[in-house]
Amino acid sequence: MTNTEIRPVGPEPARTRKSRGNRRTGQTRKASESTAATTIRTRGTRLLAVLFLAPTVVGIVVFTVVPIVGSVVLSLFQWDVIDDPRWAGAANYREILTDSTVLVSFRNTLVFMALAVALQLLIALVLAIAVNGRMPKWLRSVFRSAFFFPLVLSAASISVVMKYLFNQDFGPVNWLLGTVGIPSVPWLTSENGAMAAVVLAYVWQQFGFSFLLFVGGLNTIPKEVHEAASLDGASGVRKHLAITLPLLSPTLLVASVVGIINALQVFEQPYVLTAGGPGDSTRTVVMVIYETAFEQLRFGEASAVGVLLFALIMAVTALQFRLSRRYVHYQ
Amino acid sequence: MTDSLLSRRALMRYGAYGAGAAALAGVAAGWDRLTAADIPGRDDGSLVIATLGSAFNPEAQRALRDGFREVHPDIRIRINPVQAYDWSDFFSKILTQIAAGTAPDLVYVATEGVQLFARRLGVPLDRWAKRDAAELRTYFADVHPSLVESMMYEGSLHQLPVEFNAADMYLNSRVLERAGADLPDDDWTHDDFTTLLRAMKRSNGDRFTPYFWTNRLWGGVVPWLFANDTNLLTESKAPGGDWLWNSFYPEAQRRGRGGGYRWTTPLADSDRVAEVYDYLSSLVQEDLCTRPEGGDGRNLVGVFSTGRVGVTPAGGFWAGGLHQAGMKPADYDVRYFPRRRTRRHQFGAAGYAMLRTSKMRDEAWEFIKYTARKDVMTQLFAANQTTPARRSMVDEARYRETGPAHWQVFYDTLDKIPTSGPIPAPPQVNEVEQLLIKHTGTALASPGAVRPALRRLQGDLEKAMEREV
User: Fold this and answer.
1) In DSSP terms, which residues pair with B387 in a beta bridge?
2) Which residue of B has its CA nearest to A290?
3) Mode of pairing for the β-strands spanning B421-422 and B156-157
4) To bridge B230 with a disulfide, which of A256, A268, B18, B272 should be the other Cys (CB 3.0-4.6 Å)?
5) What is the DSSP secondary structure assignment for residue A189, as one 8-state letter?
6) What's the CA angle centered on B271, arms B270 and B277, to 5 degrees?
7) pLDDT computed for residue A184 by the predictor
């Protein structure tokens, strides 16, 4: 491989992994060094590389690594902002793992994630395929802008509007349902209705991101493949199932990874729409972190919940990448 | 790897160096913590006053600042209006400022936060109040002792109340007329209330909600608890405070006063509390009121002024809001909260709390005194967005343009019902309020849900109250 070659997106080809595996003998190392002799590797160039990388590395370290380490450390202390922190050891973890509100919030967050991500990907995919079909260019632009627009709005302000729309007594949604004879739905005042409202509000705002990814992914699929399938007599649905989805699987992986990470950190929609209620039915993990830290001044316990959420996100993401080896196809 | 300028191992090494350097920098920074106050220009020697953003309009804030400058040209002040949804949100933001090292000198605090601030952050005002007793005599003579008592904590005065709001009942005149009902008597009961709601429902159709209520500490379940002679937490009074009562109030008014309220053992699983929840549950089942989660004060003015709601609890603050929404004084009126076992009302008051972190305490006291002056309060509360703590300001002239006709109710809630008291707001108030909201929603979900939910509320409240704040 030379410097001018373009690497494919996704996991490296098997031969690369294999060649790297023989580290004990040092043969791979020698081979790479001999090839690298053709590349520039003076000390000055290395320094330049480090300089270029430094802002990103420093940014990651300062804004990601240090806060994570800080949270882990803080989770071992009792701290209320006002007085100095006191060592608590594992007490914060014991406390939160026996707190029914925390446990329920993890369950709610997982349920929310499953519903929201599935719905978001489905809507985005269907609309991306529809918009990518035959239609005037200007109309396509209108749809793309319209679907992306909610993403640039503040989640809190959208939630305020949604709260009005979903109000059981005075909301336009129930009024509209009433005009066709459907009885008033307790959107924000029943456990299932509240979760549905939060999911809908979230999906409406978030699906634009997946939509854009899918539109980009669809454009990379060669038209000839679909044309060939048409000549073979494949129906539209068959073409999408057998061609579009497999070829779009790398994009689906990205969209689902980002979607799941975002959904696991949902805060604004349930906070504004339902305040976590009725009862705890829409209380999410990040809401619990906020309430525990900023309303109850228990920063140590809040950090412990944050550490658990971090572990959950890491685990789910790792699982996705592990599963992706089986289901994601690179061209 | 052959095509890279930097080997993976080298990259890892440099990354580790970077991480180590950042960690060291973090430790170094933590040693003698840099705070937001270290930003040039932040700490300019001004007296910083944090107010709830929407508490005063910009004109009032200007008047406050400019007026104070005229009296005290040597004290620079900076008003920091903090935008927040409610008091709990406001306190969170103030605590964040304190954690960031930019603590204000004074904070506008309502009953919800009086004890939280007093216990953890506040400075008692006793020595200044004693020193300037002569100057304060006219203020205390004009302010009901219940309001002052609600601003005391363990025998010390922590704020001079400048405003308050009691939960009285607003009624829409047009809705009453359609129901063929008259304005209820002063002494109406909760049975009269139910009868009125039913009449309203009959005459106003399906898309109408007779009673609108919010699920929170102020104006939610608590006024119903007070009317049933109970509370969320056992209420008692701290000893002390004689220095204030003996100095400023006559014998009749200081009888039974103490050093501020104490709220301790939870009462959520008591029969009287259950009676209240059963009653509210019956109203929900009968479709006579909003479900607790549905009630949100933000769109309340709109639905009340357009006749889609008949009755709602609110304080004097609502007169200004309804006026702005286009309602005429005759379009609505106000009555006491309906009685059950008692006619006790709940209220919440607000004033400025001095923070322990302040290095300008004498200057801060001057500002507190200044805001308690009648001429200053007249400017601040010109828009009728609240009830002034000074009795002499609650007069006919104030309500002539905005209404309601029975504006006397606002201050009479204190004067004629001297048992009226503040909402239960111990130092653990944030958690108490959260638990109340959460379990009220569950309790009113179905007819059989009241007692199990109240038992859980009791358990959670006990846990919260045991927690050191």
Assistant:
1) B164
2) B92
3) unpaired
4) B272
5) T
6) 95
7) 83
Alpha-carbon B402 to chain mean position? 23
ipTM value: 0.78
A49 contacts B92? CB cut-off 8 A: no
Q: From the list B3, B18, B434, which residue is nearest A291 (CB)?
A: B434
Query: β-strands B156-157, B209-211: how paired?
Result: unpaired
Asked if B2 and A40 come within 8 Å (Cβ–Cβ), the reply is no
Structure tokens at A320: 């996705």
> Do B163 and B389 meet the contact criterion of CB atoms below 8 Å apart?
yes
Burial B409-448 (b: 16+ CB within 10 A, else e): bbbbbbeebbebbbbbbbbbbbbbbbbbbbbbbbbbbeee
**B residues 295-314 lying closer than 8 A (beta carbon) to A:** 296, 298-299, 303, 308
Q: In this structure, what are the phi and psi dihedrals at residue B274, rounded to the nearest 5 degrees?
A: -60, -35
Q: Distance (Å, rounded) from C-alpha B427 to C-alpha B91?
A: 12
Say if B22 is an interface residue toward chain A (CB within 8 Å): yes
The distance of Cα A292 from the centroid of its chain, to the nearest Å, equals: 24
Q: According to the model, what pLDDT value does residue A243 have?
A: 84
pLDDT tens digits along B112-160 = 999 999 998 899 999 999 999 999 999 999 999 999 999 999 999 999 9
- For A198-240, how does the pLDDT look when each residue is reduced to its tens digit (9 = 90+)? 999 999 999 999 999 999 999 888 888 888 888 888 777 888 8
Q: Extract the residue ranges of chain B whose pLDDT is less than 50.
A: 1-4
Please report residues of B whose CB lies closer than 8 A to that of A66: 22-23, 26
Burial code (b: 16+ CB inside 10 Å, e: under 16) for B282-307 equals: ebbeebbbbbbbbbbbebbbebbbee
Residue A230 pLDDT: 80
A2 burial via Cβ count (<10 Å: 0-12, 13-18, 19+) = exposed
CB-CB: which of A50, A194, A276 is closest to B14? A50
* Cis, peptide link before residue B404, omega less than 30° from 0: yes
Q: What is the pLDDT of residue A6?
A: 39
- Residues in Cβ contact with B145 at an 8 Å cutoff, skipping those fewer than 6 apart: B245, B249, B253, B254, B257
**pTM of the full structure:** 0.83
| DSSP output for B80-129 | EEE--SSHHHHHHHHHHHHHTT---SEEEEEHHHHHHHHHHTB---HHHH
Contact A58 B22 (CB under 8 A): yes
B2 contact A CB<8A: yes
Chain B residues 70-129 within an 8 A CB cutoff of chain A: 88, 91-92, 95-96, 98-99, 120-121
Residue B1 Cα, gap to closest chain A Cα (Å) = 6
CA distance A1 to chain B (A): 7
d(CA B389, CA B165): 9
**Three-state DSSP class for residue B144:** coil
Residue in B closest to A274 by C-alpha: B293
Residue B48 sits at the vertex; the CA angle it makes with B45 and B53, to the nearest 5 degrees, is: 150
Return the half-sphere exposure (C-beta side, CA atoms, 13 A cut-off) of residue B43: 13
Question: Is B357 touching A (CB cutoff 8 A)?
Answer: no
Name the pLDDT band for A52 (thresholds 50, 70, 90).
very high
CA dist B146 → B131, B160, B164, B416 (Å): 22, 12, 11, 12
Q: Do B294 and A189 touch (CB under 8 A)?
A: yes
Check: CB of residue A215 under 8 Å from CB of residue A144: yes
Distance CA(B338)–CA(B271), nearest Å, equals 20
A295 interaction partners in chain B (CB closer than 8 Å): 88, 91-92, 430-431, 434
Q: Considering Cα of A91, then A95, then A97, then A98, what sign does the dihedral take?
A: positive
CA neighbours closer than 13 Å in the CB half-sphere of residue A306: 21
Residue of B nearest to A283 (CA): B438
Q: Does B294 touch chain A (CB under 8 A)?
A: yes
Orientation of helix A137-148 relative to helix A100-132, angle to 10°: 170
